[in-house]
Design goal:
Length: 194
């Protein structure tokens, strides 16, 4: 049931706004689906240089461990460095760790650099890093702390499609379980932009 809700939310949210995308990344053990909604092409929301981004992800590590995240961030270009964007925001995390539920609202920081166009028609390349952190005050119930680090490199192979490789490290600290390493893995994926 949880999978059906996550899939329906991701795909319906991707169709609602103009500049959005859906991504799928996998490795030998994990499956993750991501949806991104971007306000760049919505004239009603785009009244300043700040771009608002909403994202949702569903990570299925195994039958017992699942994670859903819903976030909102504000993105701006960093002055003085062409191609560099910085995002600040927050995300709500709900995870199922065996028979326990984990909830937190970590603060989020993201940096994305798109390299300038290269010679010989090499497709655009971007590097991205993301950090999420929730101390005890932003963790709910028996949850005590949440940390997540991600880094990825993507290449735009067609106008509306990127391929990427990345690394993620997710820790959920829970009362009675301690510091639980939810995921520590490399992955590859594709992203379709609308």
């Amino acid at each position: 049931m949880l999978k059906k809700i996550a899939f329906a939310t991701l795909f319906s949210s991707a169709l609602l706004l103009a500049e959005s995308g859906v991504g799928l990344n996998i490795n030998e053990k994990d499956l993750e689906i991501e949806g991104i909604i971007d306000s760049r092409n919505l004239k009603a929301l785009q009244t300043s240089s700040t771009v608002f981004q909403a994202d949702i992800n569903f990570l299925n590590e195994n039958e017992e461990n699942k994670l859903i995240g819903v976030g909102l961030g504000a993105t701006n270009l960093v002055e003085g460095v062409e191609g560099l964007e910085a995002t600040l925001g927050a995300k709500f995390i709900w995870a199922e760790l065996g028979s326990k539920d984990f909830t937190a609202a970590p603060l989020m920081g993201k940096v994305r650099y798109t390299f300038p166009p290269l010679m010989y028609n090499i497709p655009p390349v971007s590097v991205e890093g993301k950090l999420l952190y929730a101390p005890k005050v932003l963790a709910f119930g028996d949850s005590e702390e949440y940390r997540e680090f991600r880094a990825n490199v993507d290449v735009q192979v067609i106008e509306s499609g990127n391929i990427y490789v990345g690394y993620r490290n997710i820790h959920a600290h829970y009362d009675g379980i301690g510091n639980y390493l939810f995921d520590n893995s490399f992955y590859a994926g594709i992203k379709i932009l609308y």
